[in-house]
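Give me the fold.
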Amino acid sequence: MVFGGRLICEFLQNSSFWSSFLRVSLYARSAYMRVYTGLLIAGTEEQKKKYLPKLASGEHIAAFCLTEPGSGSDAASIQTRGTLSEDGKHYLLNGSKIWISNGGIADIFTVFARTEVVDKDGVFKDKITAFIVERAFGGITNGKAEDKLGIRGSNTCEVHFENTKIPIDNVIGEVGGGFKVAMNILNSGRFSMGSASAGMLKKLIEMTAEYACTRKQFNKKLSEFGLIQEKFALMARQAYVMESMAYLTAGMMDRPGIPDCSVEAAIVKVFSSEGSWVCVSEALQILGGLGYIKDYPYERYLRDSRILMIFEGTNEVLRMYIALTGIQYAGKILTERIKEFKKRNIKVMWNLIIDRMFGSKPPSIGVIGQGGVVHPSLKESVEKLEQNVFEFGNTVENLLMRFGKTIVDEQMILKKVANIVINLYAMTAVISRATRSMCIGLKNHDHEVLLANIFCIEACFENNYTMVSLQKDSPENLDENIKKVANQVLEKRSYICSHPLNRTF
């Protein structure tokens, strides 16, 4: 790929966007990269030669058209339609797309639409196809630019297609293969959020630290107060974890072929977007009233970072994807074990009994000690990771036995499963990175070890609590009570508690 994973990480972290607040927002750039990535992944050589040079030079602006008024997170439900002409030489595109970045200024659009496809059995089916659409094809109009809370530098609007004539040569990939193309493109955008968020936090730490080290209250600098120091430690830790996860995932994506890193990309997106929101909020707390004033740049960070939890797939949808993908794999293994158990396979039955009786301690995976690959300074973190992984395996197995296939409907449980997986991946990333830094003698490697150990200890504690709450009849599991409260509120569509002064006797 022209733009490898690690190259994208470097670009997003070192981009002058964060230091000079360029008018072109990160999201506008993201839309640009989506079109570019789609052509790189699935485009023909002719398509690449025709479109990539002008996109790369900036001569042409690009837009990515997936979301519709009736289909947001459910991308498979889009209604825009591409109809093949009678002569079979072009498609007529009709439909509308919303929330399109660069929609009012783009020259080139990647558009996803339903097309009629004949399957192997000769049955006609509707499947999604990806098209390269030029504004010059005609039949393209757009609404006014949306007035948004954040990322105000990006042009976001509705785009309408009315009998837009598209040559069949402008299909990206296979006819009917557009959904896969869309998911591959979104994966690229999701993983890059880690490096983009880390870059943002690095700049914000610099700006906020300068203020904290010069501002005095009660005859002391802000930087001398414990609660302020805690906020800086949080920002540094989160930035380190985001960056570590982003580069670990980028390394996987840069392997030969097109490896499937969709789960890892979703993990990076969820962790980084939520971590950014928390850290930016804490930074504004350090700045006090200064952070709330539009004359200063800080409040823009808060407004711009809020979109991170929404675009590229909402965090709620991605959590379901993370959890169910893993559970699907675990379910296959458990199903095979149950089949063997029913056949009275003595070995399987005996191993299961042994695991239940003596499986309280996780087996060491041999990454610490002689011949190990993790630095001894991270021994406690590795042990906590091993313990968490072992207990998590048992937890997932118990959940599958308890719920079976109906677990797909247990969203609150799946959210907890996803949160554990996210923490496990983050722990793996920081342990790996801190070990490398120690072994090759990078500057401030002891600082990295501190960050890694703090994060792993906190993540392990969080995982342990979450796994306890996933046990049947656990007093920590409040899911049923939460559902009752939600249903009572939604039934009345309001806050239903009586005013405390309705009665005064």
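Residues 178-212 form the longest helix (35 residues).
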